[in-house]
């Protein structure tokens, strides 16, 4: 990867249609790379989640035209919430296969064009419309169900096992899980105070999060990402061609994807696919994945780690930009990606492992800096214009590895100290499709 650009993610960009948003992100990327021009690009991969939001079929062709890339090849990418992450990998594959030397990955979403209830209906169409959707299946409901089971499995059966009254034990477990999930919300919103591209930068307390509007028990408004308008682009090249554009490229050293059933009711039980540092005895009594874990995330991570030569991601990654559509799914994904063992996500959060050093979050974070997750603020604070989100993660990871966050953000707070390797993670549906990509600092 040699350059990237993003627009500010916002509730609405009424002055820009989707073509102009992508062009603005592309112009930023080109401005940062003087040697880049449309004639140097061999083709594109363009992502957006839903035709419904812009009421335009074949919108990727309109983006291609607006960027002046005709008659070069282009492919539209759509994969639910993982659309942007899959677009990034599709551009990588176009270059890695030798089909292209320079590929533009561009993504956008204009979700403000419809009312929120209608947008939620469009998103719900990414569930099984013959089964889940007719029964009222909206995604906040799915994730509330999944985290309640996660809390039951890892807090109720462990920390609250001494309480014989089942309802009271689960009530206390959910209260504890909700408090810990709120730490994630505080972290991401506070990180975003230093990110000018974020939609919802703010300082919150745990009480603020817990007392915000209940959306789907136990998930509150401040624990959930929102619909957004925005665009992002990334330019990927062969290693040889990269030298023509920058002296600080970032290498893509691993890519992985995983899948699972669309319907939660079809999720099976079996053995945990193990990372190299795990043992089967760690999970002898664990019903896996059920609805409490995302085996698609574990599969994507395993593939990406193998390709990049990683055996212990917690020790070998310097940061992760993770798809936190919900504070709950961020904690669940810590476990899927092997940052901690299954069942340790709540303790991992409370210790402060995924928090940044040097930031006062309003509560103790004794292990801050161990493996920062979402230093940008993630989806909860940055927003989630679906087709752009995974590419936004790639751009922020690119700037982190370049060491140019201060330049692009106008603030050095979020810049890690000489990071060498990071990961980006995109997640679709109820975990029905996941991508993980590993990025490493390139030559100097």
What features would you describe in this structure?
This protein is an alpha/beta fold and 444 residues long. The chain has 2 domains: 115 residues, Thiolase/Chalcone synthase (Peroxisomal Thiolase, Chain A, domain 1); 279 residues, Peroxisomal Thiolase, Chain A, domain 1. Helices cover 37% and strands 16% of the residues. Strands 1-7-4-2-3 form a 5-stranded mixed beta sheet, with helices on both faces. Strands 8-13-12-11 form a 4-stranded mixed beta sheet. A two-stranded antiparallel ribbon has the order 5-6. Helix 7 crosses helix 12 and helix 12 packs across helix 13. The longest helix has 26 residues. The radius of gyration is 21 Å and the shape is globular. The mean pLDDT is 96.
